Amino acid sequence: MSAPVAVSHAPAAPPRSTGGPDPQWVAELHDDITATGGDTRTVLAPATGEPLHELPLSTPGDVADAFARARLAQVAWARAGFAHRRRVLLRAHDLIVARREQLIDLVQLETGKTRGQAFEEVYQSAASARYNALAARGVLRSRRVHSGAPTVIEARVRHRPRGVAGVITPWNFPLSLAGMDVFSALAAGCGVVQKADEQAALNILELRRAAIDAGLPGDLWAVVTGDGATIGEAVTDHADVIAFTGSTATGRRIARKAAERLVPASLELGGKNPMIVLDDVDPGKAARQAAYACYASMGQLCVSPERIYVTRGVADAFTRAFVRVIGSMTIDPAPGSAGDVGTLTGQAQLDRVRAHLDDATAKGATVLAGGAHRPDIGPYAFEPTLLADVSPDMHCFAEETFGAIVSLYVVDDEEEAVLAANASDYGLNAVVLSGSVARARRVAAALETGSVNINEGYRGSFGSIAAPMGGSKQSGLGRRNGPDGLKRYVESVTVASATGLIQAPTSAREWRMLEQPMLLLLRAQRVLRRR
Ligand code: NAD
């Protein structure tokens, strides 16, 4: 494939009417991949199981080439300054909004989500472009700080872009995650080589097109594709900073590599997210919130709840309402359809969900709702499933299922709910449903997760691009979004200069003369609470 070039991209007709993407549009997107070897992989559409396109695959040499070109482009991009980068990213925001129909179509085609759940991603990627465009200067501009010896030394801190970031993303939220990790890197003055998951590469390429058409140099954001074990590893071998999103197992490998090379890595990993339902909820309303939180994107979302702890006072009413809501959910993965939920994304997901369900039921779990594969709807369609009587010997008790299955536990009170919620190796997101936000905030303060959503499943924190997102414990290291998301792409540099007004001591005699005034200065700064 040829090298990425900055071409003006005329939005293709939405593919819904034809049931698949326009082949010419797909071919143009393929041309933007840094891939020269000629190998391809067939990507299947989750809704039908039919081939969607033949994805060109990169070689390790392509990855090296992409980094070399991104390095050159990054030098000019860093020099261009905040105002230029802001203009380009704001234009990218506008193009994402203008091209939302194509993007929604692609999310549906590649992931099997519903239209609404695909729109979540478009909204989030546009919001990431806007936030990072507008926030970067305030967070990263060079500033004066108090020096250790006022009038003798003046100190400034500036932030140097780290170079070219290796961004590695999974298939489940391609636009949101690329938006969060790539736009922050670009706003900070870095270049990006992104390793797209094969199942979601078209989404990323179309998002990149919006940025290129907005004025981003083509070489600055390269997209490579292929196996994690070869192409993913090649990305981590070259990157000046790594932003990885994926499973905890892969995150550990990347952490080891980053440690060997002494490059920083932010790791956004898996979860086994708890939801606590307190006894002061309206059961019907809580059930509707729980259903969206658990089964949107068919539960294939790192921040979806997979464990529900309902307090005894409301357990019967909530469970009845929840089972009713689940039973009423429509499953329809066809692009353009109006189903409540779509489909699992592929065979590997279906196999994992079935394995967890079979293991749980064989060991005594009760299926309260769902529980069936629905090949009549789609090859990977699965009913939203609620289990009770789940015990620690079952895989779905503590392991991330990442799709369709949620376990319900009745607890005596909120203290027991918090203990159970925290008894996990993971610590990504938690949900508290309560009639009192003040009470829910008290509970939230005791939870060991990177985010807590009150009376919302995940969109509250996941959509708050100005706030940090990340996990505790085995759910990750570092934070994306907000100022933290920008700072991970820069190195802080302190530049201290002698003012020349008073010379710092250089001899024993000068030290003797200045010791008392310096002690006085220390005490004065303490009294003035000067940091
Ligand atoms: P995965 O770890 O198998 O793959 C993620 C990406 O890493 C893919 O692009 C893959 O090709 C690549 N990869 C695989 N091995 C690699 C290696 N050795 N070196 C470099 N790259 C490699 O994860 P997955 O199954 O695709 O995604 C689902 C997981 O991602 C779940 O655990 C989910 O919770 C997690 N996730 C986390 C977040 C978050 O923000 N915390 C968001 C979405 C998904």
Produce a short descriptive summary.
With about 525 residues, the protein is an alpha/beta fold. About 45% of the residues lie in helices and about 20% in strands. It has helices at about 25-30, 60-100, 100-110, 115-140, 175-185, 200-215, 230-240, 250-260, 285-295, 310-330, 345-360, 395-400, 415-420, 435-445, 460, 480-485, 510-525, and strands at about 40-45, 50-55, 145, 155-160, 165-170, 190-195, 220-225, 240-245, 265-270, 275, 305-310, 365-370, 385-390, 405-410, 425, 430-435, 450-455, 470-475, 475, 490-500.
- Total strands: the figure is 20
Helix content: 40-55%
Task: Indicate the mean pLDDT.
Answer: 95
Low-confidence blocks of residues: 1-18
Global morphology: globular
Hetero groups in this structure are: nicotinamide-adenine-dinucleotide
CATH H-level homologous superfamily name of the largest domain: Aldehyde Dehydrogenase, Chain A, domain 1
Count of DSSP H/I helices: 17
Give the CATH topology of the largest domain: Aldehyde Dehydrogenase, Chain A, domain 1
Q: How much of the sequence is in beta strands? A: 15-25%
- How would you characterize the largest beta sheet? 7 strands, mixed
Task: Tell me the strand order in the biggest sheet.
Answer: 12-13-14-11-10-16-17
What would you report as the Rg, rounded to the nearest angstrom? 26 Å
The first-level CATH class name of the largest domain: Alpha Beta
Category from helices, strands and their pairing: alpha/beta
Distance between the termini: 55 Å
CATH architecture group name of the largest domain: 3-Layer(aba) Sandwich
Number of structurally distinct domains: 2
